[in-house]
């Protein structure tokens, strides 16, 4: 970021939420870079930016899509980069129909499952067929497992045989990705931006001019985002739109370019790399699915093809090495390396699916580790009620957080909905060590592993996660010792032999060494692996996470590297360790032109050295180091050998950056604007109001507000969005127990514009009650011009800002109502993240009612709005496309949608969820 000429921060308040990383923004600005902040609120980031562009929450695809249209229509795209390095010239199969053709749907939608069959999105073969993955690819709609396959392709893209792909290098064929892209975004105009986002033409022109003037051979633009983008029902597609724009401008793989996913200090990146996610294994290998991946070969055939380009073709080596790391000598060729020890997905098993199962009395016990769902998760009332259905609950935390005390002082105790004496949940609180009381790695923004050294010993009985789980595993294995039950073998055969230090704690460096991996056989047996390219599928290597291989090369903890900046090159390769291979910029082959020369001297990063016949530069080349720029592979080859000298995107199945995603994104091959689950306006672009693929929980305890001019929408006329503060940390467990931080931000508050305050009679620093279809909370009123009314679709849209750090309980220094109580449960379909950044509500002066009257107020609003479980939960607003219809017949059907019906009838009183 420090090398950027322009930085667009959108979906993040970086100065407040990532203040350490913001150092690099200020350094870029000091060197002359332009900084633009696009956000609903004017924040401390906005205050130090060159410009702030206010936007309506949830409308980002329209703004980014209009920038794409601007770049294409004014020929501002980096032509040589795009032609050589992207799939712009690839031809899409003739069966594909765009959202522009079907009024908001793509071809292949199945209204019963709410998912797409992606076969029509595929590339065209040279002989006119489809270029698809293996026949058992689980992403096809009919074979998908209950919406659990969203991110199953992990870091490798979709398997496909690259040699058969049809291309038109002139970009003139109407079904090239380039022409489809132009048609798709043609209606995303500055006028549409003003109508949908509330952004005026002057601001749009400034933004478009700034990013295009700072892109190309000599200059680069960087985008940065955080949960302001991800926590939407379209979150993955927000990021996809930015990636399309950055590819068109030639900003990917180059210094000062790219898209920076801002990650928090508590190893947020690490928790997805070595995942706490239900559908991924370490290194973004997919979790097997029952009935689809019943054998190791079926699994490997589904996740990768040996005929695809790039290093993901070696996924079998990564998988077998993982199995050997976990089960050691028990993993043999005869038992498919203990593949059957892995669990199988039988559906979506995420946090919120588990929540509904808890409410249905299908879950006995629950561990909470570094989470405070009573405060920090969507629909807090639903979270707390679900915990009251458990038999036991284990909370490991630093303080007695609200998720440990809801049974005695939570909001539902105060309202009378729950009584302590009636709750049968047995709650165990176990004290946890803080990040300064334990050693290990954090993986942060830029994929950077950094070693933290223990500063002090944890107090009392507090324990690190490593010690806790090591001891828990040891005790479980003791209980199972001697068991002959096959179901116990995966636990008994685990390699659970970590060395202990003088205090009896497992050595964290030994865990890092296991993650890195080592040779098991041959002359190098016992030597740590230096690169994931050393992994083999024959059982001769073990490694716990292939993308981390190299962090412990030669037995050296490279995450602990701390060489000062003045003593090394600008990319700082000796400060921490970045996966993969300590590479600081991914896809950096794209920093040089197709001939291997830097695009400019100013932006040189890696380049081809003709004398040495290898790639050299300021970074570890993200490319086969001896692959010459002009080389062309054997068409029948696969893996790294199939990469041409100008295929920089080495983990993609065709070696190209994807302007169009033929597979791998379950809600569409191109980002498309839909309104949030709750919206004050209709969709200006399509008759399809909301994403048809969003994950719904149509339940009586998770009602949604009507949108636009639907009956009852006027009951919840305002938009609310949540955010975080510098002074508090997430749900408050590390900050509301500290007097000095609590003093800085002592009370829950809401930010409203002067116009909204006048409209609703809100007094500065007085109280307000905010009511959504789920809850009513109270907050102090902060009247500020930081929240600007926007004109959207001809009406004034007011937005309310709510920090989400407070919770109700008696143990913290300060407490207050939780903003996340207002949120409903609607999930993004690719990664199953909650939609937390755009909802609708009412706001009224004064404090909320106490006792049972609080719930009665919420129910009064529900009755006035006429809410049912079907409200907002219809899948389709347009006719379902007929797969056999011609384009003309499809057009006629959409002009006369008489056959369109509501496919989400009134669910039963307490259904599981609509699928």
Automatic annotation (TrEMBL):
CDD domains: MopB_CT_Formate-Dh-Na-like. The keyword NADP does not apply. Its cofactor is [4Fe-4S] cluster. Residues 127-158, 865-915 are annotated as: Disordered. SUPFAM superfamilies: ADC-like (SSF50692), Formate dehydrogenase/DMSO reductase, domains 1-3 (SSF53706). PANTHER family: FORMATE DEHYDROGENASE-O MAJOR SUBUNIT, TUNGSTEN-CONTAINING FORMYLMETHANOFURAN DEHYDROGENASE 2 SUBUNIT B. This is Formate dehydrogenase subunit alpha. It comes from Kocuria flava.
């Amino acid at each position: 970021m420090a090398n950027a000429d322009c930085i667009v921060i959108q979906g993040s308040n970086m100065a407040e939420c990532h203040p350490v990383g913001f150092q690099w923004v200020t350094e870029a600005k000091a060197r002359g870079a332009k900084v633009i902040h696009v956000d609903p609120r004017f924040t401390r980031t906005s205050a130090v930016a060159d410009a702030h562009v206010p936007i309506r929450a949830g409308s980002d695809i329209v703004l980014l899509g209009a920038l794409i249209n601007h770049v294409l229509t004014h020929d501002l795209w980096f032509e040589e980069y795009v032609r050589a390095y992207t799939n712009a010239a690839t031809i899409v199969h003739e069966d594909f129909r765009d959202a522009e053709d079907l009024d908001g749907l793509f071809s292949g939608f199945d209204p019963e499952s709410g998912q797409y069959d992606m076969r029509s999105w595929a590339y065209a073969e040279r002989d006119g067929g489809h270029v698809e993955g293996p026949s058992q690819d689980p992403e096809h709609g009919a074979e998908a497992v209950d919406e659990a396959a969203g991110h199953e392709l992990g870091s490798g893209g979709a398997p496909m045989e690259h040699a058969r792909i049809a291309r038109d290098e002139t970009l003139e064929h109407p079904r090239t990705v380039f022409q489809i892209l132009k048609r798709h975004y043609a209606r995303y105009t500055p006028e549409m931006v003003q109508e949908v986002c509330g952004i005026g033409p002057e601001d749009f022109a400034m933004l478009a001019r700034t990013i295009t003037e700072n892109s190309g051979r000599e200059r680069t633009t960087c985008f940065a985002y955080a949960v302001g983008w991800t926590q939407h029902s379209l979150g993955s597609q927000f990021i996809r739109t930015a990636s399309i724009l950055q590819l068109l401008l030639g900003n990917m793989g180059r210094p000062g370019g790219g898209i920076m996913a801002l990650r928090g200090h508590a190893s947020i990146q690490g928790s997805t790399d070595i995942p706490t996610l239900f559908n991924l294994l370490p290194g973004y290998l997919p979790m097997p699915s029952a009935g689809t991946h019943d054998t190791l070969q079926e699994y490997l055939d589904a996740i990768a093809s040996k005929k695809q380009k790039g290093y993901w073709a070696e996924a079998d080596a990564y998988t077998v090495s993982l199995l050997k790391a976990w089960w050691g000598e028990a993993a043999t060729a005869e038992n498919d390396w203990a593949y059957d020890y892995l669990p199988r997905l039988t559906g979506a098993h995420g946090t919120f699916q588990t929540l509904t199962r808890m409410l249905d009395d299908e879950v006995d016990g629950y561990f909470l580790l570094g989470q405070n769902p009573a405060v920090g998760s969507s629909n807090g009332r639903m979270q707390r009620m679900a915990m009251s259905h458990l038999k036991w609950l284990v909370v490991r935390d630093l303080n007695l957080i609200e998720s440990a005390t809801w049974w005695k002082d939570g909001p539902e105790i105060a309202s009378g909905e729950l009584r302590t004496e009636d709750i049968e949940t047995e709650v165990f609180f176990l004290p946890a060590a803080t990040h300064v009381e334990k050693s290990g790695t954090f993986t942060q923004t830029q994929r950077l592993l950094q070693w933290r050294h223990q500063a002090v010993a944890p107090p009392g009985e507090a324990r690190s996660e490593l010690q806790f789980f090591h001891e828990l595993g040891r005790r479980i294995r003791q209980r199972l010792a001697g068991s002959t039950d096959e179901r116990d073998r995966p636990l008994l055969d685990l390699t659970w032999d970590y060395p202990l230090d003088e205090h009896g704690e497992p050595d964290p460096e030994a865990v890092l060494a296991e993650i890195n991996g080592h040779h098991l056989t041959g002359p190098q047996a016992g030597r740590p692996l230096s690169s994931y390219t050393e992994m083999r599928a024959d059982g001769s290597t073990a490694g716990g996470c292939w993308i981390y291989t190299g962090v412990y090369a030669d037995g050296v903890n490279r995450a602990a590297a701390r060489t000062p900046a003045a003593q090394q090159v600008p990319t700082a390769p000796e400060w921490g360790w970045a996966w993969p291979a300590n590479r600081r910029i991914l896809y950096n082959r794209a920093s040089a032109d197709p001939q291997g020369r830097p695009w400019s001297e100013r932006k040189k990063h890696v380049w081809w050295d003709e004398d040495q016949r290898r790639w050299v530069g300021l970074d570890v080349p993200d490319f086969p180091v001896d692959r010459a720029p002009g080389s062309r592979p054997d068409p029948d080859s696969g893996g790294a050998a199939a990469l041409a000298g100008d295929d920089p995107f080495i983990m993609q199945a065709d070696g190209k950056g994807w302007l169009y995603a033929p597979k791998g994104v379950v809600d569409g091959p191109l980002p498309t604007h839909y309104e949030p689950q709750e919206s004050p306006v209709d969709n200006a672009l399509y008759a399809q109001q909301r994403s048809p693929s969003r994950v719904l929980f149509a339940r009586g305890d998770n009602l949604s507000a009507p949108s636009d001019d639907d009956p009852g929408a006027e009951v919840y006329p305002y938009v609310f969005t949540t955010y975080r503060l510098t002074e508090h940390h997430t749900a408050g467990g590390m900050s509301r127990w500290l007097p000095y931080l609590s003093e800085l931000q002592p009370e829950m508050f809401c930010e409203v514009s002067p116009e909204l305050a006048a409209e609703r009679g809100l007094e500065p620093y007085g109280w307000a009650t905010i009511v959504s279809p789920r809850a009513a909370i109270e907050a102090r009123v902060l009247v500020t011009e930081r929240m600007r009314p926007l004109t959207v679709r001809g009406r004034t849209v007011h937005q309310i800002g709510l920090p989400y750090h407070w919770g109700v309980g008696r143990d913290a220094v300060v407490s207050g109502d939780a903003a996340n109580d207002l949120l409903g449960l609607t999930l993004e379909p690719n990664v199953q993240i909650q939609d937390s950044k755009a909802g609708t509500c009412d706001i009224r002066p004064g404090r909320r009612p106490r006792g049972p009257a609080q719930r009665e107020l919420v129910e009064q609003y529900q009755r006035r709005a006429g809410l049912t479980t079907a409200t907002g939960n219809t899948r389709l607003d347009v006719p379902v496309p007929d797969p056999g219809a011609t384009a003309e017949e499809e057009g006629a059907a959409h002009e006369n949608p008489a056959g369109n019906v509501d496919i989400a009838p009134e669910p039963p009183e307490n259904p599981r969820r609509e699928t």
